[in-house]
Specification:
heterodimer; A: alpha+beta; 4-stranded antiparallel β-sheet; two-stranded antiparallel ribbon; flat; B: mainly alpha; 0% strand
């Protein structure tokens, strides 16, 4: 079955909000509910959080290769993490992602992972 | 990815425990740092758990992250670092919690520190909510209808007082316990009442106030050093009153008084727990006002209907209560019991005497009760003017709707409505 990458982009930073423990628990519970729902259909393969602010960008080959701080802050959206789903079609993956709570405060990008032909 | 169930209020509970345990290790003068690292740990969970799922041992995870963060910040103070390193964070999990709360001592010490008599009452309340109940400044402000900067200021000043006066984080010595418990119980009941008599909005925060007051009451009642009869009595009072919480509003959010409440909605297990606490409260020879108030609440809890209520007993309890705590609000409640035993006119006579009481001048319930009693006495015209007066005084939306409904019923000259009582 095809696999899909769901990239989560965050706007702003949780740290800047004065969230109480109860607020934090409520937000985590929303994600839990989503993950539980997708996992119960056997369609959630994994999820990972990307470390904040530690990424660098490599550009150019050989001697021209340069490492710069990044990802660039041109966009205020930063990739926070991702999930990998399994779904029968792009449409189904879209439906699975459609009620991810990330959409309440950021955005999602959904990409199909190219499958290698079996030898 | 496995997703396990989070215990209810895991975050609020863990936050309170972490603040207490870390402050115990580092000292009250590091309360700010402790709060910072605890908040860091919670936000860290918020950043990672949505992707990775909830860890096997969420509580231990949070403790570990908070402690590591504290170690980071204290790198240059090795003596404090050692104290932190001694905290057995890895062993903190659901399992270790099941065999009794290992943080009860720390949390109770924190309650006593926050309610230290050197702090003004408002500061005691704000600090308790912040550090013991893990409320945010915004939540505290919402609960007490205050501006967030005012609350933040109050907390800063309270912390400074604690450091300046060297107030320790420890359970008071047995000889001082009685005196030190008094403000603690007063703060607890204030928090509870604030939640119970919900002002406008923020329903969830309100309920949490009641829950937290009961949680702290239980901490006190379960600890051998603090489990005094007064503590059991207060816990009984809070449980018995809280058992009626979900029956106190109708579907439109309007306040429902005792006679109109659907008693099937009363929380039986809370009532049972309250009755057991009341039993334990009677072990000593001292009677506090909490004892008597709990006994009144128990009378209501045990009555199958309003008519079935033993009002004569309730009136005798109010007579006792007013001796112990001669406050205007208790006198007002007593007048309602008088009316139920001796008729509305007798209640009205009691209330007439209270009308000059400055403490009740801006209290909507006095004219509201008068309105109810005049209506019962067959004088809807008189009742209407009292309800109208009540509406001119400060009251929340639910109370306002209640008064407006009563006013309309008077105008329609319908069948007499159930008597008003608080």
């Amino acid at each position: 079955m095809p696999k899909y990458l769901v990239l989560a982009r965050d706007e702003g930073n949780w740290m800047d909000l004065d969230l109480s423990p109860a607020d934090i628990e409520a937000i985590i519970n929303k994600y839990r509910a989503w993950a539980e729902k997708v996992a119960s259909q056997g369609k959630l393969l994994s999820g990972e959080k990307l470390r904040d602010g530690e990424g660098r960008v490599l550009k150019g080959a050989g001697k021209a290769m340069k490492v710069t701080d990044g990802p660039h802050s041109e966009s205020k959206e930063v990739i926070g993490g991702f999930w990998i789903l399994e779904a029968a079609s792009y449409d189904e993956a879209l439906k699975l992602a459609a009620d991810n709570p990330q959409l309440e405060h950021g955005s999602l990008e959904l990409r199909e992972i190219e499958e290698m032909p079996h030898e | 990815m496995t997703v396990q169930n989070l215990v209810d209020h895991l975050f609020r509970q863990s936050a309170a425990q972490m603040v207490a345990a870390l402050t115990r290790a580092l000292g009250p003068d590091r309360l700010d740092l402790v709060e910072e690292v605890v908040q860091d740990a919670l936000v860290r969970a918020l950043e990672t758990w949505p992707y990775r799922g909830v860890p096997q041992n969420p509580r231990g995870w949070l403790f570990q992250v908070a402690r590591n963060r504290a170690l980071d910040l204290l790198r240059r103070e090795s003596s404090l670092g050692e104290k932190l390193a001694a905290l057995p964070v890895a062993e903190i999990d659901q399992h270790s919690m099941a065999g009794g709360d290992p943080f009860a001592d720390d949390e109770l010490a924190m309650v006593f520190m926050c309610c230290h008599p050197a702090l003004p009452r408002e500061a005691q309340i704000a600090l308790t909510l912040k550090t013991v109940c893990a409320f945010s400044v915004n939540e505290i402000a919402a609960a007490f209808l205050a501006e967030p900067p005012t609350i933040a200021q109050r907390i800063v000043r309270a912390k400074r007082t604690i450091v300046d006066r060297g107030i320790p984080l420890e359970l008071p010595h047995q000889s001082a316990l009685r005196d030190r418990l008094e403000p603690v119980l007063e703060v607890l009941y204030l928090l509870f009442s604030e939640g119970y008599n919900a002002h406008e909005g923020e329903g969830l925060v309100r309920e949490e106030l009641c829950n937290e007051a009961i949680r702290m009451g239980r901490l006190l009642a379960h600890h051998p050093e603090t489990a005094t009869p007064a503590v059991h009595a207060l816990l009984a009072l809070m449980l018995l009153q809280a058992s009626r919480l979900s029956a106190r509003r109708d579907e439109g959010g309007s306040l429902l008084l005792l006679p109109e409440q659907n008693r099937a909605l009363w929380n039986r297990s809370m009532i049972n727990a309250g009755m057991r606490a009341l039993e334990r409260a009677s072990a000593g020879d001292s009677i506090t006002s909490y004892h008597v108030q709990a006994a009144i609440a128990a009378c209501h809890a045990n009555a199958s209907s309003d008519d079935d209520t033993d009002w004569e007993h309730i009136l005798s309890l109010y007579d006792q209560l007013i001796e112990l705590t001669p406050t205007s609000v208790i006198a007002l409640n007593r007048a309602v019991a008088v009316a139920r035993v001796h008729g509305p006119e007798a209640g009205i006579r009691e209330l007439e005497r209270l009308r000059s009481d400055p403490a009740l001048r801006r209290y909507y319930l006095l004219p509201a009760v008068l309105g109810g009693l005049w209506y019962e006495a067959g004088r809807p015209d008189e009742a209407m003017s009292w309800y109208a007066r009540a509406l001119e005084l400060p009251c929340n939306a639910a109370e306002r709707r209640f008064l407006e409904t009563r006013l309309a019923q008077c105008a329609n000259g319908r069948e007499p409505v159930a008597p008003v009582r608080s």
